[in-house]
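Structure ticket #2291
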Amino acid sequence: MPTETERCIESLIAVFQKYSGKDGNSCQLSKTEFLSFMNMELAAFTKNQKDPGVLDCTTKKPDLNNDGQLDFQEFINLIGSLAIGCHDFFRRTSQKCI
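Resolution: structure written out below.
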């Protein structure tokens, strides 16, 4: 029986695979695939953004090799950054973490 952490890792891999490959390369998320991921999986984040440049920046910042796509490592770095941001928000507002 997998642990909760192991299930989370499996889930992240499955989500990446769900959105990658539609534009040809199953090892990377194209900008279109990434935006689809953001709109479906992080809808609250994308809907609450008043500045349209934030999503564009969110796409470009994790693209460490500047190839216009996100490989799995870049994707995980982005997820980690979002998790850190959420954790910091909960700490600052004294809200209970999820």
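Closing remark: The beta strands are 28-29, 70-71.
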